[in-house]
Design brief:
Blueprint: E1 4-7, H1 13-24, E2 28-33, H2 37-49, E3 53-58, H3 64-77, E4 83-86, H4 102-123, E5 132-136, H5 140-143, H6 149-169, E6 175-181, H7 188-192, H8 195-199, H9 214-224, E7 235-238
Parallel strand pairs: 1-2, 1-4, 2-3, 4-5, 5-6, 6-7
Helix pairs in contact: 1-9, 3-4, 4-6
């Protein structure tokens, strides 16, 4: 039987690249998406054409009822979960702190960290010894970002969540780690930043370019499999060479 991996935010970008590689390595992949049903179904069909197994399920990770339905679908189809990749997130750039409304602040936290809490809590009953949880944080948690104050704050919370949860679950044989991407070229970038910022996106890294989602996927698969059996509570930095000492 294939190991089962749930990836949130899997219809495009980092989540989709990770799903493709995980399926190639033999995982049955659950593709969670919010609205982009067409992209998620296309990805599911691509995985199945290549001999893999995939299930696409729509759910808003910020909504407890949606999360419950997501895991009911996983339980019905597979009866287990071996790997949870908490990847779904959102960002809303603002020039000044005063421009961030309380509604925006709460929405960002509800998706990026409250959702992660709900997903992990719901996953544990289906996950046994040898399971792995992988959270997507960000270089902004270490360096900050003047236009992404709420987003950066959630990514800092994710690091603390990862470290604390890893210690909490170690006696249950479940490892918890995170990946901290630097500037990665995903559909989120042109949809949230100005054309000028997009034109220079990633140019300030030591490598002088943004990364591609495919350059991140192997980090998630490594943390999911037994190759990383002695790794927990850690953060992998995939950021084009920026040293963040964390």
């Amino acid at each position: 039987m294939r190991n089962v991996m749930l990836i949130t935010g899997a219809s495009r970008g980092i989540g989709a690249a990770t799903a493709l590689l995980a399926a190639e390595r033999g995982y049955a992949v659950v593709l969670n998406y919010l609205r982009n049903r067409e992209a998620a179904e296309a990805l599911r069909q691509r995985i199945e054409r290549q001999g893999g197994e995939a299930l696409a399920v729509a759910a808003d990770v910020a909504e407890e009822g949606d999360v419950e339905r997501l895991f009911a679908s996983i339980d019905e189809r597979f009866g287990r979960l071996d790997v949870l990749v908490n990847n779904a997130g959102e960002q809303h750039p603002q020039a000044r702190l005063e421009d961030i409304s309380e509604e925006q602040w709460e929405k960002t936290f509800r998706t990026n960290i409250f959702g992660m809490f709900q997903l992990t809590k719901a996953a544990l009953p289906l996950m046994g010894k040898g399971g792995a949880i992988i959270n997507t944080t960000s270089i902004t948690a270490y360096k900050g970002n003047p236009q992404l104050i709420d987003y950066s704050s959630t990514k800092g919370a994710i690091i603390s969540f990862t470290r604390s949860l890893s210690m909490n679950l170690v006696n249950r044989g479940i490892r918890v780690n995170a990946v901290a991407p630097g500037p990665i070229w995903t559909p989120l970038i042109p949809s949230t930043f100005s054309a000028e910022k997009v034109a220079h996106f990633g140019a300030d890294t030591p490598m002088g370019r943004p990364g591609q989602p495919e350059e991140l996927a192997a980090s998630y698969v490594y943390l999911a499999c037994n190759d990383s059996s002695y790794v927990s509570g850690q953060v992998l930095h995939v950021n084009g060479g920026t040293v963040v000492n964390g």
